[in-house]
Specification:
Layout: E1 5-10, H1 14-24, E2 30-36, H2 40-50, E3 54-56, H3 59-63, E4 70-73, H4 80-89, E5 93-97, H5 104-117, E6 121-124, H6 131-141, E7 148-158, H7 175-191, E8 197-204, E9 211-220, E10 223-230, E11 232-243, E12 247-250, E13 262-267, E14 277-281, H8 286-300, H9 308-327, E15 331-332
Parallel strand pairs: 1-2, 1-4, 2-3, 4-5, 5-6, 7-10
Antiparallel strand pairs: 7-11, 8-9, 8-15, 9-10, 11-12, 12-13, 13-14
Helix pairs in contact: 1-8, 4-5, 5-9, 7-9
Length: about 325
């Protein structure tokens, strides 16, 4: 029988309650043991709802629980680093929601904490563990598209609620931080390289100040990646990969459904009306996979699926896009 890693959750954030906790409760390697909120009534309510054994009225109480081995941190972006450090110093491994920090400088502080405490710290980019993305990378690496030259992405939703944390600039809200980070990490993952320079263009909400429409070009050693993200446009997401002899399209790249199969489309250019091959992946929950891979790495003392340094490199790109939008010039990464 597998000795499951015992997890605690910092806050009753919606992503935790609606997606991550239920998914991890289905895992083979993960066990949600406790949840904390600054409002104990909230943590008790969620604990009862999701059948979590312990509910705490402060994050400090949860971190003091010596039965907890790992922490899932879904707090607002501006609290990621502070509570990740607190958790690591309390002897807990940490899976922290994306983006892991507000900037690269802040993210780099976590490396010293990880090395000093010997606790694992990982950014929660669940897409990087989904079978459709592992297959996409393998297909492109195998040469099915010829030489990969261009990546194009789009990710958007509509939300103008001023009370929503994603629309609060002081908390690290805005399109680039919330969803632009997805095409960034995927482009780096698929090219298996870091961009040399970037160009960014931003439209800000006149009331809230957050970037509501952001586009960017990332120049990699072997090609280019372009993407647009928005928090005030029709909900849509898609990623396309173009090579010298083929094209690959990921139909639902980021919010992959757990209750039905996902698909990637391959096009060798021989059929002008559409794709020539459809590859389907059985239904799965990418949050379950993410949690289990992290837990397994903890329990078996092996390398985690996404190293902390990867998160820092993504933050460098985000920083450069913001700076480029301000200066109107290309920025080195």
């Amino acid at each position: 029988m597998i000795d499951k890693v015992r997890w605690g959750v910092l806050s009753t954030a919606n992503i935790a309650v609606a997606k991550v906790i239920p998914a991890m409760q289905e895992g083979q390697w993960s066990k949600i043991t406790a949840i904390a909120s600054r409002d104990k009534a909230k943590s008790e309510h969620v604990a009862a709802l999701l059948k979590i054994p312990k509910a705490y009225g402060s994050y400090e109480e949860l971190l003091a629980d010596d039965q907890i081995e790992a922490i899932y941190n879904p707090l607002p972006n501006d609290q990621h680093v502070y509570w990740t450090i607190k958790a690591a110093e309390a002897g807990k491994h940490v899976l922290c929601e994306k983006p892991i920090a507000l900037n690269a400088r802040e993210a780099k502080t976590l490396v010293a904490v990880r090395d000093r405490t010997r606790m694992r710290i990982q950014e929660a980019f669940m897409v990087r563990t989904h079978p459709q993305w592992l297959a996409t990378r393998a297909l492109i690496k195998s040469g099915r598209l010829g030489q990969l030259k261009s990546i194009d992405g789009f990710f958007s939703y509509f939300n103008r609620d001023t009370t929503n944390i994603r629309n609060q600039i002081e908390s690290g809200g805005g399109a680039l931080m919330d969803i632009g980070c997805y095409p960034i990490t995927i482009s780096r993952f698929i090219f298996a390289a870091e961009p040399k320079r970037v160009l960014g263009l931003i439209e800000r909400d006149p009331e809230m100040g957050i970037d509501r429409l952001t586009s960017a070009i990332l120049e990699f050693p072997g090609g280019q990646s372009t993407f647009t993200c928005s928090t005030q446009m029709v909900p849509y997401q898609r990623m396309n990969f173009f090579g010298t002899s083929g094209r690959l399209e990921v139909v639902v790249p980021f919010n992959a459904p757990k209750d039905r199969p996902t698909r990637i489309l391959l096009d060798d250019g021989s059929n002008p009306s559409g794709s020539t091959e459809v590859i389907e992946f059985a239904e799965c929950d990418q949050y379950t996979i993410q949690g289990d891979l992290f837990s397994q790495a903890v329990r078996e003392n092996k390398a985690q699926s996404i190293p902390l340094e990867d998160a820092i490199n993504s933050m460098k790109v985000i920083d450069a896009i913001f700076k480029s939008a301000e200066t109107g010039e290309w920025q080195l990464v």
